[in-house]
Amino acid sequence: MTPAPAHAPTLSDLIHAETRRFTAEHPRSLALSRQSAEVWRGGAPMHWMTDWASPCPVFAAQGVGAQVTDVDSRLYDDFCLADTPAMFGHGQEAVARAIADQAKRGTGFMLPTAGAVIVGRLLAERFGLPLWQMATTASDANRAAIRWARAVTGRPVILVFDGCYHGMVDDAFVTLRGGQPSMKPGLLGQVHDLTATTRVVPFNDPEALAAALAPGDVAAVLAEPAMTNCGMILPQPGFLDTLRDLTRRAGTLLIIDETHTLSTAPGGYARAHGLEPDMLVVGKAIAGGVPAAVWGVTAELSEHMDAAAARTGPGQSGIGTTLSGNALAIAAMRAMLSEVMTDAAYARMLAGAERLMTGLRGVIAARRLPWSVVHVGARVELVFAPSPPKDAAAMREALDARLLHALHLWLINRGVLIAPFHTMMLVSPVTEDAAIDRLIAAVDGFAGALEGLAA
């Protein structure tokens, strides 16, 4: 009797094989993961650390430049870069030196330092807004910006774009489901209906934006200039100009969150494209991984803020935290702005991103894949759709969760880290061409493996 033919391998078979490979090659990470689960709820100090496609997180031992070594002595080309805080590379000498020096003299005083004056001038020069404040995270900075916008305008509503993410900001956890505003699935512990004071519209839809602003009750639009958290979505030609024009006509403030799009240029996307926001938020990479964020305002808005504060009177504003603006973060930020985030560094990042983008598009063309590539500055994303989606609804249709899982696990097993939440890849100024080529080859290998799978 002829034996029954073995079934053609499936995507599930590929994932199982890659899972077994990871398990065999990462005994120390697996052991540490079990130990970590005994003391950290969810298995890690922050639950996002367990969101990788691997059976357990890779436990890091050290990062140097654009590479990470794990506790099993395995080396990775790092295109995640801590999901942006290490955008300019790990172990920056200038930042390490500044941190060590400041730590010897005190990390925080609840008093400004002379270095704060220099940092303020560097921020104003780089981003074009004259007046600044510090926060500990971009979440804090966005919350402060929203509170001030409501105080200044006397309006209750905030407008965001469907698919946005602006950190742990309650007002931004609203999405469109079936065309209707709804709080995002999975939102924990929220007792207020956020849709009462947050309006949400599709990105790249000027008609929907105009209609949402028409009632005259929107204090501010909070937006990334290019969406980066639901999959990268670029603004269509003219959309950002329309956004700026419509907000001005409506008396609505424009808050631009550059936490990810800082990869565009030394002054961020907004300055590179002449967007002229009323408020600008920058987090993550601005202090080289030391927890810090900044938000800047125009001189005109600052005057309105003073007037709003005078109307409110003395007391607790509800804005600010004890660690915001601490001396350690100021020292790190000064080193980043003056020694690390240079024009030359950006030139290397952008050249590397161009190499990566060209290589990935070559793989797509050679293998005739129904995929595409999109980028913002040094940030590149592989999209499982023939052309880049223009809004979050279209992007959701392109996000194949199992395919994403398989790709991430495949890359980890071949010594490549990319952002665990989707397919975003970030090129640092110290990322070597050889590392970019290894990433391209790994994606090509994954695409080749898919060709042999059963539908």
From TrEMBL:
Q: Which GO terms describe its molecular function?
A: glutamate-1-semialdehyde 2,1-aminomutase activity
Q: Entry's InterPro entries?
A: Aminotrans_3, PyrdxlP-dep_Trfase, PyrdxlP-dep_Trfase_major, PyrdxlP-dep_Trfase_small
Q: Record's Pfam families? A: Aminotran_3
Q: Which cofactor does it need?
A: pyridoxal 5'-phosphate
Give the E.C. number(s): 5.4.3.8
What stretches pass through the bilayer?
none
User: Which keywords annotate this record?
Assistant: Isomerase, Pyridoxal phosphate
Is Isomerase one of the keywords? yes
Q: What class of enzyme is it?
A: isomerase
Q: Which domain of life is it from?
A: Bacteria
What family is it from? Belongs to the class-III pyridoxal-phosphate-dependent aminotransferase family.
The record's listing under PANTHER family reads: GLUTAMATE-1-SEMIALDEHYDE 2,1-AMINOMUTASE, GLUTAMATE-1-SEMIALDEHYDE 2,1-AMINOMUTASE 1, CHLOROPLASTIC-RELATED
Q: What is this protein called?
A: Glutamate-1-semialdehyde 2,1-aminomutase
Query: Per the UniProt entry, what species is this protein from, by scientific name?
Result: Caulobacter rhizosphaerae
What are the leading ranks of the lineage? Bacteria, Pseudomonadati, Pseudomonadota, Alphaproteobacteria, Caulobacterales
